[in-house]
Amino acid sequence: MEPSDFDKFIKSKLQEDIDLHKRESEAAKPFVWSAVQNEVTNRSLNWRHLAAAMILLLIGFSLVFQMNRQAHQKELNHLAKQIGELHEQYQRQLVTLEEQDHQNDAQLLDSQKQELIVHRVDTIYRIRVDTVVVTVKEFVPVSAPTASQADPQVTENTIEKTNEVDESIYPHYTDGDIKRKTETIQLKFGALTARKD
Amino acid sequence: MKELILSEEELIRRCLKKERHAQEFLFNKYYDELYVISMRYLADHQTAEDATTQAFVKVFKSLKKFTYQGQGSLGRWVRTILINESLRLLKKRDTLQFEENLLRVESQNSGANALQEMQAADILSMIEKLPAGYRTVFNLYAIEGYSHKEIAKMLGISESTSKTQLKKARHRLMFNLNEERNYGTV
Asked: Which residue did the predictor score with more confidence, B22 or A187?
């Protein structure tokens, strides 16, 4: 047989229906198809999965952010409440301290009552001085005198230039607010010496 | 499942639209043939399975580049992809060895009538038993119809090597066929 005829013979034989590997090919067929499908649709599946993952991630982050924000707000409210309570406590303590301070001042003043002995010719004076505590209950603002009330020659422009202190500008107290308590004890030595003679 | 019967043009059009039924129809149409061809080249079921899988993947991915040229052109294109994939796997396995020296070969005289009685499955089995180099060149030249120049370019060998491999392949096949005829069931 010529080589070319041999080739033709083999080729024609192989074009017949061959069942040599039928069993193995049928067994492998579903696996091959599954592998082909996975490879071919892999790219589109990835995009879909990626999009779904991004959306889930976004929702997750939003939830976490919202929860964080709420927790932060809650903490702020709690801190504000605590500050309020501390402030009230502080105010109460301040009032208590002021009262104590007043009491202490009163006690101090009591202990500081002075007695002075003053000699005047033949008389010895024993003077007890009590310090008076003035409690200002209300400020009475006094406005500065207008130019017409004061020196007529003084205009409003010149008032600012003067350095004189006008006592009427400063708040002053009426006599009713001041408690003065003084006690004077007089001793006359002349009377005593006359009795001896 | 309702069986689809589609022309090649319609089949290509639907496969490009990624219709699953059309893809499955194309797969079923060519799977058996491609598996047998890959076995002829690779002579190993596992590798043949890999080659077939990769060939179909390339078919579906490259289908948009295919230009339909009449009845049968799709089949030829699919077979070409499979052959290229089989050769790639052969080279990857590094079993493709080509003997450069042409030994003196005693020609075997086989009666044509006797050979006609051989079964196709037996002939295919004998081709698969050939060494990888002989088998590849014989498949490409005798069955696929490539020239020695084309084979040399595809396999990265010289034309003379291709011719040598072909002669040795024929000699070995004839010898095996005679052995089978003389000592086999035929």
From this structure: B22
B127 or A193, which is more confident:
B127
Asked if B56 lies within 8 A of A24 by C-beta distance, the reply is no
- Report how far Cα B93 is from the mean position of its chain's Cα atoms: 17
Query: What is the value of pTM for the model shown?
Result: 0.57
Average pLDDT, integer, range A127-133 = 69
H-helix segments, A112-141: none
Mean pLDDT of chain B: 85
A72 pLDDT band (50/70/90 cuts)? very high
pLDDT over threshold 90, residue B82: yes
Shortest Cα distance, chain B CAs vs residue A13, angstroms: 5
Which of A6-20, B79-93, B112-126 shows the lowest mean pLDDT across its residues? B112-126
- Nearest alpha-carbon partner for B19 in B30, B35, B6, B31: B6
Q: What's the rounded Cα separation, in Å, for the pair B116 and B122?
A: 12
* Nearest-angstrom CA–CA distance, A54 and A129: 89
Minimal Cα–Cα distance from B69 to chain A, Å? 23
Q: Looking at B7-155, which runs of residues are DSSP E strands?
A: none
B158 vs B148: CA distance, rounded Å: 9
Residues on chain A touching B147 (C-beta within 8 angstroms) = none
CB B132 within 8 A of CB B97: yes
Residues of chain A in contact with residue B109, where contact means CB-CB under 8 angstroms, are 1
Q: Tell me the nearest-neighbour CA distance from A31 into chain B, angstroms.
A: 9
* pLDDT at residue B113 in the model: 58
Instruction: Give the distance, in angstroms, between the CA of residue B33 and the centroid of all CA atoms in the same chain.
Output: 9
Chain A from 144 to 173: CB within 8 A of any B CB: none
Rg of the Cα trace of chain B? 19
Give all strands (DSSP E) within B88-157, no chain letters: none
